[in-house]
# Entry
Amino acid sequence: MSLLELRDVEARYGEVTALHGVSLTVDDGDFVAILGANGAGKTTTLRAISGTVKTTGQIVFQGERLHRRTPEGMARRGIAHVPEGRGTFASLSVFDNMRLGAWTQRGPSARDLARVFEFFPVLYDRRDQQAGTLSGGEQQMLALGRAMMAKPRLLLLDEPSLGLAPLVVREIFATLRSMNDRGTTIVVVEQNAALALGSAKHAYVLETGRVVLGGAAEELRGDESVRRSYLGY
Amino acid sequence: MANLAQQIVSGLASGGIYALLALAIVIIHRSTGVINFAQGELATLSAFICFALMNHGWAFWPAFFVTLALSFGGGMVLHTVVIRPIQGGPLLGIVILTIGLLIAINGLTTWIWGGTSQQFHGPFSTAPIRVAGVAFSKQDIGVIVVAVVAMLVLGLLFARTKLGLGLRASAVNPSEARLVGVPVPAMLAVGWGLACALGAVAGVMAAPSLFLDPNMMQTVLLYSFAAAVLGGMDSPAGAVVGGLVLGVSLNLLGTYVDWIGGELRLATALALILAVLLARPSGLFGRSIVRRA
# Structure
């Protein structure tokens, strides 16, 4: 069952067209990686989905065609977008950041908080600290924890591995796989193609604002052009 | 000694009023980046509204709370209709807009109520109250209590409630706040509403001693800006401390230093600010923004 469909979506930043008719599908329970070089339009695709950038073309979520979308509105529909750079509220405490994650819910339930702290015990230790004082890896965990508080139907992550040590990155992706096993649909934008293809079920490759390749992750891993351009062998 | 205590209390009362208005200025600046030069005139307008209600037979406290509600609503409307459309524009444009608002509102209050000073009968009598043998003005104590309560309520709102969390998030990182679902434009409007309600408290508390006229809050606004800057422009705690410190210092300096009479009060205040800023450019509570090159 398709959860999200983009049909011929175009997006512009002023005069510059960043997406030239992108079409893709994300099924319920899927784990999708969006790959491509810098400037290929990966971030813009996520922004198009979360309503942060104006688009033309059709965006269908849970079977419903969406017009006039705002980021707040998409958040209320259950889309959690973790932007590049984690998007933490640096001057607020870790705990406040988590409370904000639960904004679209009635309020942070103790059970939700406990579940996130179980996943990331370091967040519990640092709960009263200013979020900006956390390390990069901890901030990424905070961003994920915050997204979990929103109990999203669809989780969008922009470059979660950016600036993080390999060990930390492996932990993050293990957490993502675990979340996916429990039913959260995930779309990950990654420059690190090998990493993303190692966890994802499906993938799309973008080049200058267009989808040039799409399919099961294993297929793409074996694909000649992908291997040469993005996997380095 | 008794005189010192009286001067301090009296300084805290006027300082409380500066603190309230300074807090309003800081809330608006922190959340929307606008320096609201019209904050004083809005406070005056609120005081006049309370005055008008009382002239129609209302008792003080009902009139006061209705004025607060109207000021809150007015602030929200002001943000949505006047400020939001120009928010993305150049800073100078926004500054000119709020100065224009200042002039417009001043004109409005003069037009409706005339330019002559009126007597405003506040809720506190001017009779003295003796504490430990020293006579304090009931009005001073009343103003301090009201100011403290108002600031406490606001502080609790920001720190403990979901609304307060949304307000803080919208001020700190509006684009990210929208991504988690916070209705940022509405939050910013609420911020303006709260600021104008604070201004209303300041105006109504100032009216009995300053006498009600359209220019009543102009000097207070200057002191409040000084207090806000002294505290570090974006720090609510700093605005409060700045206001109180300013109020008390001005009183003590005026009493104990011979050559600082009534005319030099404002100059003294500004000189104080200058001295502090020379030593600490980001204000007493401000955080200097260090950017990695």
Remarks:
- The longest strand of chain B covers residues 128-131.
- The radius of gyration of chain B is 19 Å.
